[in-house]
Amino acid sequence: MNSSSDTPMYNLKAVVQETGLKPDTLRAWERRYGLPDPQRTESGHRLYSQNDINMLKWLSTRQDEGMSISRAVELWRSLQTTQENASQAHPSAGLRTSSLPTAMASPTTMNQGSILAEAREAWVASCIAFDEQHAEQIISQACAIFSVETVCLEIIQQGLAKIGENWYKGKITVQQEHFASALAIRRMEALLAATPTPTRPGRILVGCPSEEVHTFAPLLLSLLLRRRGWDILFLGGNVPMQNMLLTVQTAKPILVILTAQQLYTAANLYEMAQMLYKERIPLAFGGKVFSEIPDLPQRIAGHYLGDRLEEATQAVEQVMALPRPQPAAKTVPPAYQAAAAQFRARQPRIEAEVWRSMGKAEIPHEDLGKANLHFSRNIIAALTLGDIDYVGVDIVWIKGLLSNHYQLPEHLIDDYLKAYLDAIEIHLEHEQTIVTKWLRGILTKGIPNFEDVKSPGPKKQRRSLP
């Protein structure tokens, strides 16, 4: 701390105006907890320093977040002790433990963006090193400086995005990615359990459609909404279609929120949305796949929450405050509906034919089985949603994945697509013109790199609802 921050120069009136705290509150805290500890003039008037004001603001913020003043004071003193013991900080952390209490005490003298970036890098490094204790320490200390919302969005969410990117590029293992995700989810669950009792009327049901197991996004959204006073019922991932109607009839939510991260789970969300629309149950939705394919939100009967998670809470509150007609889904052409039904019926034959023709290829049998499952269900999803071009994003992504993780020759993907095209033409004859024309086009033009084409729509740089 610098000398000017420590200099007592503000009277009680100035502190009251700056912090919003009442004089009686300041005197009570000083009497009970010894904080703040102002100096006195010769006439006995209190004088406070800038550090006193920053500390009072920090304590007040913790109270606003639901923490008792006694617990906030205890946490403050613990962080001060951490600062004094900074020499024992983890050597590989990247984030100096001593810097956190300093930034907390004098946030106006620090660049918050650089502090968050440093904390994020340290958290990512700790997760990659499987250092649970230090990763948790970083988040706990960051929560002492910044709001829970800021920590979740700027450190955990962005940190997970960085870890996911590194996994895709083959720089880290899937075990490291799973470890980080598990830590993040546990933190979300703990924060959600610690939120105050809801203060707003009505219940919001949050979950994922069937087969969607990525729960970090809806958990974080549940936390953000709960901290704004909403009554949230979190259902988790992979909510079966057949159970949703009974669930909403029992829970009686005023809004259902569903998130999907992949194309085939977006198709499951589409079908669930159709059911809720018929029952006149309001739906809001979001997820990574809707950000990657700009046209996709038009296919869902519901209110799209937008491309940025930090804006999703505002979108939800707008839906709640200003009830408006539920947007209907964009109509799926009859040809697509027929194609989806035909493809589902003959999918096993098609995949068996691909097995036969690719049996001696360089692709391991286990990976070939995964490719068949992944590709087939995404074709069905695109047909269900009404645009076969939606599968293109996935093919480009798989190309990069195989190259980064398995160093497989690029021609293997072309060989696989050719085998799949042959299988469709054998077992669907001339019934499936939508898929066959699309596959021929892909093979003719070639598959671009993931960095060059990330969606069939305009390329956008944005942080999606993860």
Strand and helix layout:
Blueprint: H1 3-6, H2 12-19, H3 23-33, E1 39-40, E2 46-47, H4 50-64, H5 69-84, H6 99-105, H7 112-128, H8 132-145, H9 148-168, H10 174-193, E3 203-207, H11 216-226, E4 231-236, H12 241-251, E5 255-259, H13 263-278, E6 283-286, H14 288-292, E7 303-304, H15 309-321, H16 334-358, H17 365-385, H18 391-406, H19 411-427, H20 433-445
Parallel strand pairs: 3-4, 3-5, 5-6, 6-7
Antiparallel strand pairs: 1-2
Helix pairs in contact: 4-5, 5-6, 6-8, 7-8, 7-9, 9-10, 10-11, 13-17, 16-17, 16-19, 19-20
Describe the structure.
The chain folds into 4 domains: 1-84, Multidrug-efflux Transporter Regulator, Chain: A, Domain 2; 111-194, Orthogonal Bundle (Methyltransferase, Methionine Synthase (B12-binding Domains), Chain A, domain 1), CATH 1.10.1240; 197-321, Rossmann fold (3-Layer(aba) Sandwich); 334-445. It contains 20 helices and 7 strands. It has helices at 3-6, 12-19, 23-33, 50-64, 69-84, 99-105, 112-128, 132-145, 148-168, 174-193, 216-226, 241-251, 263-278, 288-292, 309-321, 334-358, 365-385, 391-406, 411-427, 433-445; strands at residues 39-40, 46-47, 203-207, 231-236, 255-259, 283-286, 303-304. The protein has a 5-stranded parallel sheet, sandwiched between helices. Strands 1-2 form a two-stranded antiparallel ribbon. It is elongated and about 100 Å long. The two termini are 38 Å apart. Residues 86-110 and 450-466 have low confidence and may be disordered.
